[in-house]
Amino acid sequence: MARTALFEGLVFDEKKRPLDIGRVGIDACYLYDDDGFLRHLDAAEIDHTIMRFFKEQVLENKEMAIRGMLEMMGKDDIFTKTTLEYQVEHMDEDIEKALPPQARGILRTLGFKIIIDAQGNITDMQSPDLSALQGMLGLDDTD
């Protein structure tokens, strides 16, 4: 179980309503309103599934993602590139540090949504088009 819900504001029910965050003891939960019955769904479990999805997406577009991060950082050296590649490969291992609050805001602005059912299963992920992100960063895929 986790003390925080990493994707607060990005997780929705099947009726497209955002889920609030609650606690069971010290552990964070997504609160799912199931026709008046408030289900407490383990945030850690849902967050791990989402991070695995992110990792798969980034690995499919690894070179573009690394170039974009280097561009945003204003760096283009082998040490920074190697560090970023390592972080991408291990991004799902320490998820509490993986998504800063600013990133949630960016994802929300881009229209990223995670839809879950009453059991906490992810039924849909609406993610931003990577080509839109690529355009925002001023990158093209012709290298």
Mean pLDDT: 83
Name the helicity range: 40-55%
Integer tally of domains = 1
**Radius of gyration, taken over Cα atoms and rounded to an integer in Å:** 17 Å
Helix count from the secondary structure assignment: 5
- The coarse silhouette is elongated
What are the secondary-structure elements, in order, as H or E? Answer: EEEEHHHHEEH
Number of strands: 6
**Low-pLDDT ranges:** none
What is the topology, as strand order, of the major beta sheet?
Answer: 1-5-6
The end-to-end distance, rounded to whole angstroms, is: 42 Å
* Helix/sheet category: alpha+beta
* Beta-strand residue percentage: 15-25%
The description of the largest β-sheet is:
3 strands, mixed
Walkthrough of the structure:
The protein has 143 residues and is of the alpha+beta class. It has one domain. 41% of the residues lie in helices and 21% in strands. It contains five helices and six strands; from the N terminus they run E-E-E-E-H-H-H-H-E-E-H. A three-stranded mixed beta sheet has the order 1-5-6, with helices on one face. Strands 2-3-4 form a three-stranded antiparallel beta sheet. Strand 3 and strand 4 form a beta hairpin. Helix 2 crosses helix 3. The N and C termini lie far apart (42 Å). The mean pLDDT is 83.
Short description:
By secondary structure, this protein is an alpha+beta fold. The chain has five helices and six strands; from the N terminus they run ββββααααββα.
